[in-house]
């Protein structure tokens, strides 16, 4: 396995605040790495270092085989950057912006124009190509930013909070486009404060908080990391709760949470075999369950258990959709 | 943490020697010209952005010539002849504000970060902004000359020395713009720039011999006016356009131009490097 992005021990101080306190990141070529964390966790600082916009105070990083400190020009030749800061010229049109970038990448005038046309088409912006960027909607603007970062056919693409502030429809469009990129072999490093987004898009997730990576793994691994699975039983007759409680206690050797009015019982369950045993015992006892489920904790719960605070930090994240219920 | 063993990423790209690759001067210039092309494109799109270097000097010229010219020189026509080369010189100082404004805007809006994430020479945006502004200056001088001609201005020397005056004035602009670039890098917001810039522009432009002869000024002001680079440039442009001594003021102007570059180019570049 080749790593397209590899960062080791990145440290960055701004004055007295330590924005990064030894960040390690690794993205295998062709994968999507999600960097998940609340505002101020160090996501953007990490991306800026990996994009050679910022020099780390310590640590090193290699991107597409080029060292960010020793060969920044080599890195820049391989990356695309989309973020609220790496912007386009609002007074120019979509086409003009893309052609300008193509020309800066030393494409000929005609191939820069052809590439611009192709990208506008791909991102559904053909009709808007001759309008100034300042007239674009938020979603169009984000799509153009994405197009702008793809002009040079990068091997590694950084998406720094690509959907922050977008409505759900535009967000889904961006997600679809990101998904399509990996099928072309592009490695994507995506930062987000939305758990749902990381869950949807990323192959692996690095959870970052206070300038440190506090957890790393696949989404399901992270969910498991935060604790065991939960077994949930919903009985059709709440009168059976006491009997079921006894069965569950025997099976798991701990007391389940039981609600005698709704007939809902939940208990932590490490052993997957538990499910079939439970079905058998309930059957023998003649107890009918409407619902039997074994569920992983949500990433929100994972985040809470890893960082000790809810996702999103001080800022609430209304778009993550999963919070506030439960 | 992942326990997967990985091959060294260096092996991923055979072409990469791992050593620092530099972008040569030719490619730097090419990138700079591409970005200058962007400035020109923006001028074509919104010519109203040129009002500061076109309308403003015309207003200055008209105001001084018709309002005060008669009183100062006894005759508006004669005053126009004397003042126009100076207004051209003055206009370059005011016009240089645009360079700092554009660079500051590009930085705060994030356009610079886009350029910097591309394999583009780091100084290219700076070169692009400065070269792009040459176009602004040329347009500005052309408009000013047309209006002045309509007002009655006539070149009294010859076309060649008048053209030399224009080249010199633009050359001066390229030297003085580094002050603006430096300030553009230092101020946090674009809105703050004009106010800060006025602190150097006003003494340079108004504290000169562009609009009035120096004899009646108080001694301390005379002392400043007599060394002011804009006075020297105005003297030279006057000499080249309507006749008079050239060699003396020209050498003083050139000394100033070199000084401005020697002092402010490194300061501007330092501020630029710190900011981007």
Automatic annotation (TrEMBL), chain A:
Organism of derivation: Actinopolyspora xinjiangensis
Acidic residues bias: start-end ranges: 316-326
UniProt-listed InterPro entries: AAA+_ATPase (IPR003593), ABC_transporter-like_ATP-bd (IPR003439), ABC_transporter-like_CS (IPR017871), ABC_transporter_ATP-binding (IPR050763), DrrA (IPR005894), P-loop_NTPase (IPR027417)
NCBIfam families recorded: drrA
Cellular component GO terms held in the UniProt record: plasma membrane
Name assigned to this protein: Oleandomycin transport system ATP-binding protein
Lineage summary: Bacteria, Bacillati, Actinomycetota, Actinomycetes, Actinopolysporales
PANTHER family: ABC TRANSPORTER ATP-BINDING PROTEIN, DOXORUBICIN RESISTANCE ATP-BINDING PROTEIN DRRA
Record's keyword terms, sorted: Antibiotic resistance, ATP-binding, Cell membrane, Membrane, Nucleotide-binding, Translocase, Transport
From TrEMBL, chain B:
Cellular compartments annotated: Cell membrane; Membrane
UniProt KW Zinc keyword: no
GO biological process: response to antibiotic
Protein name: Transport permease protein
Membrane topology: Multi-pass membrane protein
Species per Swiss-Prot/TrEMBL record: Actinopolyspora xinjiangensis
Keyword terms: Antibiotic resistance, Cell membrane, Membrane, Transmembrane, Transmembrane helix, Transport
Span of domain ABC transmembrane type-2: 48-275
Chain segments carrying region Disordered: 1-22
């Amino acid at each position: 396995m080749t790593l397209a992005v590899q960062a080791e021990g990145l440290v960055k101080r701004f004055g007295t605040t330590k924005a990064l306190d030894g960040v390690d990141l690794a993205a295998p070529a062709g994968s999507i790495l999600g960097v998940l964390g609340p505002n101020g966790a160090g996501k953007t600082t990490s991306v800026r270092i990996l994009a050679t916009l910022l020099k780390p105070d310590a640590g090193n990083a290699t991107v597409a085989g080029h060292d960010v400190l020793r060969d920044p020009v080599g890195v820049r030749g391989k990356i695309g950057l989309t973020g609220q800061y790496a912007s386009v010229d609002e007074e120019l049109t979509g086409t003009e912006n893309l052609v300008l970038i193509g020309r800066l990448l030393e494409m000929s005038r005609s191939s820069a124009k052809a590439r611009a046309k192709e990208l506008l088409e791909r991102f559904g912006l053909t009709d808007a190509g001759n309008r100034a960027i300042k007239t674009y909607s938020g979603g169009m603007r984000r799509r153009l930013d994405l197009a702008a970062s793809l002009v040079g056919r990068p091997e590694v693409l950084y998406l720094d909070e690509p959907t922050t502030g977008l409505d759900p429809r535009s967000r889904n469009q961006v997600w679809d486009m990101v998904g399509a990129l990996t099928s072309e072999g592009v490695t994507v490093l995506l930062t987000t404060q939305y758990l749902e987004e990381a869950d949807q898009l990323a192959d692996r997730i690095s959870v970052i908080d206070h300038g440190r990576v506090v957890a790393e793994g696949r989404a399901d691994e992270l969910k498991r990391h935060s604790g065991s699975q939960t077994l949930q039983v919903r009985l059709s007759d709440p009168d059976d709760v006491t009997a079921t409680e006894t069965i569950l206690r025997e099976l798991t050797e701990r007391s389940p949470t039981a609600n005698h009015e709704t007939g809902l019982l939940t208990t932590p369950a490490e052993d997957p075999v538990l499910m079939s045993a439970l079905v058998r015992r309930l059957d023998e006892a003649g107890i009918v369950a409407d619902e039997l489920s074994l569920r992983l904790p949500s990433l929100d719960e994972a985040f809470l258990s890893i960082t000790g605070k809810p996702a999103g930090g001080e800022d609430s994240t209304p778009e993550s959709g999963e919070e506030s219920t439960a | 943490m992942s326990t997967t063993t990985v091959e060294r990423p260096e092996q991923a790209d055979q072409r990469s020697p791992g050593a620092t690759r530099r972008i040569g001067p030719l490619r730097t210039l090419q990138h700079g010209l591409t970005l200058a092309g962007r400035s020109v494109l923006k001028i074509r799109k919104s010519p109203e952005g040129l009002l500061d270097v076109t309308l403003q000097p015309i207003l200055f010229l008209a105001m001084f010539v018709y309002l005060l010219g008669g009183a100062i020189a006894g005759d508006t026509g004669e005053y126009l002849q004397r003042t126009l080369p100076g207004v051209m010189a003055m206009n370059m100082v005011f016009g240089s504000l645009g360079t700092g404004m554009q660079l500051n805007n590009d930085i705060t809006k994030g356009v610079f970060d886009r350029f910097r994430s591309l394999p583009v020479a780091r100084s290219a945006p700076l070169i692009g902004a400065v070269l792009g502004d040459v176009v602004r200056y040329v347009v500005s001088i052309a408009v000013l000359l047309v209006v002045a001609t309509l007002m009655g201005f006539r070149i009294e020397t010859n076309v060649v020395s008048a053209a030399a005056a224009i080249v010199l004035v633009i050359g001066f602009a390229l030297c003085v713009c580094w002050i603006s670039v430096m300030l553009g890098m230092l101020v946090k917001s674009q809105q703050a720039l004009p106010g800060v810039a006025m602190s150097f522009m006003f003494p340079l432009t108004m504290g000169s011999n562009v609009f009035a002869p120096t004899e009646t000024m108080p001694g301390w002001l005379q002392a400043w006016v007599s060394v002011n680079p804009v006075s020297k440039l105005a003297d030279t442009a006057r000499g080249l356009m309507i006749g008079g001594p050239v060699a003396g003021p020209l050498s003083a102007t050139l000394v100033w131009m070199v000084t401005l570059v020697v002092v402010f180019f490194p300061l501007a570049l330092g501020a630029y490097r710190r900011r981007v």
